[in-house]
Please model this.
Amino acid sequence: MAAAPEDGVRQRDAERTRTEILDEATAEFADRGLAGARVDEIAARTRTTKRMLYYYFGSKQGLYLAVLERAYAGIRALEQQLSVSDLNPARAVRAVAELTFDHHEAHPDFIRLVAIENIHHAEHLRASPVREGLAGPAVGVLEPILARGRETGMFRDDVDAFDVHVLISSFCVFRVANRHTVSAIFGRDLLDPARRAHYRRMVGDLVVEYLTARVGQD
Model:
């Protein structure tokens, strides 16, 4: 039996409310961390109550985990949408690096959330029922690129997709996460728009140079 019209309206309202809570909670947790974030503040900035917030997410920790899962799901969805099969392997792996670069720059809250969860030794993420699904797209987009590169003799054969993912993430996360300390010590702003193209090209160069190093020399 089809749902009554009012049921559909209620469902849309519930989804809208849940999204609004997650948006505000993302900012609160990214700014104050898990311990410092206040559920009262999140509820006050949304069209709901603290009681309703607990109805949707169970607890403060449940809300934090939902925020974390959504943050990871965002970059994973972009990776899955990336179409690179018609590009040569070098250009394709650059496209992955550039996507990560763009995403992390545009979502500093994601970087802060990841840093916060590492402080907690990933205890909340380890308990996530969707944890395993958060890894697949990250390496899945790289595996066929690396395979094509090896088949054509362009890429070395002793590197796996996880290695490349770590290499890309290291550069892109550092640039956002350490912006302020780098500025304080070196007087350089890693997010300076005038140097953005330079850094974006740099991460692509790093990955391609690594994948093509010593090819044919063994």
